[in-house]
């Protein structure tokens, strides 16, 4: 899938990244590396719960497949959050010394995708395509660190019995030994673990896929999108650009490694994940390439790993009588390199989320609107926009301005904000009312209202259209004797 971006925690770091940062990369199609094609008998025995996520409207499943998933109930499919989140609407809100990031868990509309179940060979005609009602990401999913990289897909209807879909159970707490409980698990032909997907079977030429530095962290979906700007790392693959490399499902047997091993890395250059690896929400699995210099765009490897196109797919193990879902394909450094293993969302860490009924998330169909004159003393009012979602929606309002360091950039290229996300800081002493009186100290600022809406299953934020308060003329006093008062 798409590469995990680093979170920018300081305003100057944000500015610097926009202006001078090197290209942050995105990933390409992916497939299991070091595995083998799944036979019809093996599919029925072990992989009847696997799903392919397709772009809606894509008749050819090979071209439309962009991620994997797993049926854990007749109408619920689990996948990786990075497969289904809309990462172009991120908002960073600076409130004094506190920084809040909104919309990391905003998901794609259900109508933009389909779920294909019961099919082993993508070009075949068996199985069933299923409509999606909505998608809900884990409420604590962090796109910058890939923690809690999991989402639930609610289907409009359960698959028919003849589709061949048989849901799998997430690993229960009494069977945590199946994933090693942080200590690792050796691979066994009888009990696994196994990974499966329609991703790359051989290491792709990363240099041709806009992936930048070889040791950047990469999520694992289908086609990458070439950055529009030197610093861009956002956007999802479009339907016409997607193409799965694998036609027949592939699987591989691979070991799970201990948390210290995941942090430290392999025996080569020692490129472990360090602080990028979160032992609470992640586990790693696979075998390393035994040759030198595998990372320098060689196209073959002796390692075993998931790869681009496998994102969201299952890592399973057997308790001797039944298969269990123990992991979800998330990210890695390249694929089957000599240094770093593939990283999976740990199902044991997100069991409570998987047991919930995915209620309709909060969505916004009309953005908030800011009304009022851009002059000192004028009263600005914030119209909340149009929203829907499960439960009683709770609204909160924040009056914000573009950070001073970014105001000049916004005036030169407003598209930079829609592309890189939005950065706002709270107006001093602005309160939480839907109205705000413009102060003399607001002169030269780019002001907006930020509306945050919380429903039964998610929270979403949208900003209004901004209003620029003209800067004071040369020699004009911008002070305000009443600036400590809030006249809202």
Provide an overview of this structure.
The protein is 10% helix and 28% strand. It contains eight helices and 28 strands. The strands form five sheets. Strands 1, 10, 11, 12, 13, 14, 15, 16, 17 and 18 form a ten-stranded mixed sheet that branches. Strands 5, 6, 23, 24, 26, 27 and 28 form a seven-stranded mixed sheet that branches. The two termini are 46 Å apart.
State Rg.
Answer: 24 Å
Strand content: 25-35%
CATH superfamily of the largest domain: Trypsin-like serine proteases
Briefly, what CATH class of the largest domain? Mainly Beta
Helix-strand makeup class? mainly beta
Largest sheet, in brief, is:
10 strands, mixed
How would the global form be characterised?
A: elongated
In DSSP terms (H or I, runs of 4 or more residues), the helix count works out at 8
The number of distinct β-strands equals: 28
Q: What's the structural domain tally?
A: 2
**Which residue ranges are poorly predicted, with pLDDT under 50 across at least 5 consecutive positions?**
1-31, 206-216, 222-243, 415-420, 480-488
Average residue pLDDT: 80
**For the terminal residues, how far apart are their CA atoms?**
46 Å
**CATH fold-level name of the largest domain:** Thrombin, subunit H
| Second rung of CATH, namely the architecture of the largest domain | Beta Barrel
Helix content: 10-25%
């Amino acid at each position: 899938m798409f590469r995990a971006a680093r979170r920018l925690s300081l305003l100057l770091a944000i500015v610097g990244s926009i202006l001078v940062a090197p290209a942050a990369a995105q990933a390409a199609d992916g497939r299991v590396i070091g595995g083998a094609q799944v036979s019809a008998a093996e599919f029925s025995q072990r992989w009847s719960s696997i799903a392919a996520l397709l772009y809606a409207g894509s008749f050819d499943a090979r071209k439309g497949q962009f991620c994997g998933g797993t049926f854990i109930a007749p109408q619920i499919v689990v996948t990786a959050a990075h497969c289904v989140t809309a990462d172009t609407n991120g908002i960073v809100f600076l409130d004094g010394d506190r920084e809040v990031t909104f919309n990391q868990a905003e998901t794609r509309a259900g109508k933009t995708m389909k779920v294909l179940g019961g099919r082993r060979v993508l070009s075949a005609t068996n199985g069933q395509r299923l409509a999606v009602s909505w998608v809900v990401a884990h409420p604590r999913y962090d796109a910058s660190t890939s923690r809690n990289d999991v989402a639930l897909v609610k289907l409009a209807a359960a698959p028919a019995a003849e589709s061949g879909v048989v849901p799998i159970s997430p690993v229960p707490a009494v069977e945590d030994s199946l994933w090693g409980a942080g200590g690792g698990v050796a691979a066994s032909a009888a009990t696994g673990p196994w990974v499966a997907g329609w991703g790359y079977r051989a290491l792709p030429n990363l240099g041709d896929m806009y992936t930048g530095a070889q040791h950047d962290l990469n999520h694992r979906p289908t086609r990458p999108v070439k950055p529009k700007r030197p610093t861009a790392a956002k956007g999802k693959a479009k339907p016409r650009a997607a193409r799965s490399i694998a036609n027949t499902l592939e699987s591989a047997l691979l070991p799970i490694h201990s948390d210290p091993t995941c942090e430290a890395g392999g025996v080569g250059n020692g490129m472990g994940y360090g602080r990028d690896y979160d032992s609470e929400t992640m586990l790693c699995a696979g075998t390393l390439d035994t040759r030198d210099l595998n990372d320098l765009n060689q196209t073959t490897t002796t390692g075993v790993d998931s790869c681009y196109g496998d994102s969201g797919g299952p890592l399973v193990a057997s308790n001797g009588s039944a298969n269990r879902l123990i992991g979800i394909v998330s990210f890695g450094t390249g694929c089957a390199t000599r240094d770093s293993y593939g990283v999976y969302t740990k199902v044991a860490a997100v069991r409570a989320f998987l047991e919930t009924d995915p209620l309709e998330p909060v969505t916004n169909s009309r953005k908030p609107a800011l009304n009022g004159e851009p002059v000192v003393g004028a009263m600005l009012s914030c119209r909340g926009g149009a929203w829907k979602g499960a439960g009683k929606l709770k609204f909160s309002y924040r009056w914000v301005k573009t950070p001073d360091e970014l105001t000049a950039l916004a005036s030169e290229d407003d598209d930079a904000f829609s592309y890189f996300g939005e950065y706002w800081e709270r107006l001093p002493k602005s309160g939480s009312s839907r109205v705000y009186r413009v102060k003399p100290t607001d002169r030269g600022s780019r002001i907006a209202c930020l509306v945050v809406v919380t429903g039964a299953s998610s929270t979403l934020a949208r900003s209004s259209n901004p209003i620029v308060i003209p800067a004071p003329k040369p020699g004009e006093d911008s002070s305000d004797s009443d600036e400590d008062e809030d006249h809202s």
